[in-house]
Amino acid sequence: MLRLEDAAARVAAPRSRPGQFTMLLAQPSLHLIRRPMSIHDEGDGWRSYMVKPVGHASGELVALRPGDRVEASPPFGNGFPAPADLGGGPLLLVGGGFGIAPLHFLARRLDALSPSMEYTILYGGRSSRDVELDAVAGVRGEILPSTDDGSLGFHGTCVDLCRDLLRRLGAKARQATVLTCGPPAMMAALHLAVRDLVRDVYLSLEEVMACGVGVCMGCVTRTRNGTVPICTHGPVFRGADLVGIDGGREHV
Ligand SMILES: Cc1cc2nc3c(=O)[nH]c(=O)nc-3n(C[C@H](O)[C@H](O)[C@H](O)COP(=O)(O)OP(=O)(O)OC[C@H]3O[C@@H](n4cnc5c(N)ncnc54)[C@H](O)[C@@H]3O)c2cc1C
Ligand code: FES
Q: Which ligand number lies closest to the CA of residue 215?
């Protein structure tokens, strides 16, 4: 877990919304372009992130030591809907791998602002090594891990687990809202599996980003309202608004 003492977070009055991301770059860096990272949590003067070292820039972030510097943008993107817009039914927060980061932040915000809202976190990985329970420690909601190889929790994918849970919810499933972030193939499969069973599905899309402010058009997705940059119109979209999501090859 990368925890940043963030000067901007200390002075900026508005708090970030769960689902928003910042653009980070270690200093000094061999790279010019900051990388988007979901906010995992925040407090007075700090934000935390979960960074998976997949390439050079994320590798530099993971290698940071206390006292090192990071370039960080203000929070970007729309974030998940406010609790009042989530319908009041059961909330299922379905995270695949590092996609758990923004869902943890959402759970923390629900705990702080909407203590009566019920939610369950479904956290899937290939094996127990991919499910960092520390990343969701201390939240109020129930946490249901799943692993493809059965080494932790439910034996199967978090999509299977979600379907299972909806079946157990019976008639209440119709009122449920599913909020998800994870690998594109997982989110596509999840949307296809649950869209007709629940009230709404919200997906946080990942795309390579350069500017983060809707200028370079390097991160677009197709929606019912046309082709839009994910960094400004997302990263969170209502499943019903996305085009090509079910079995299509676009983003999810
Ligand atoms: C809104 C948003 C939120 C994000 N939140 C997080 C987060 O919380 N934590 C996090 O670790 N990442 C997150 N990402 C992804 C992160 O920005 C990329 O992993 C990062 O840009 C990779 O940069 P790099 O320079 O290390 O790798 P690059 O040099 O850009 O890529 C190296 C190789 O890794 C592949 N690759 C790139 N990204 C990924 C990936 N996510 N998974 C698997 N392979 C990849 C590339 O295709 C390439 O082959 C987020 C992305 C978006 C758009
Ligand atoms: S990153 Fe430039 S438009 Fe989204």
A: 2
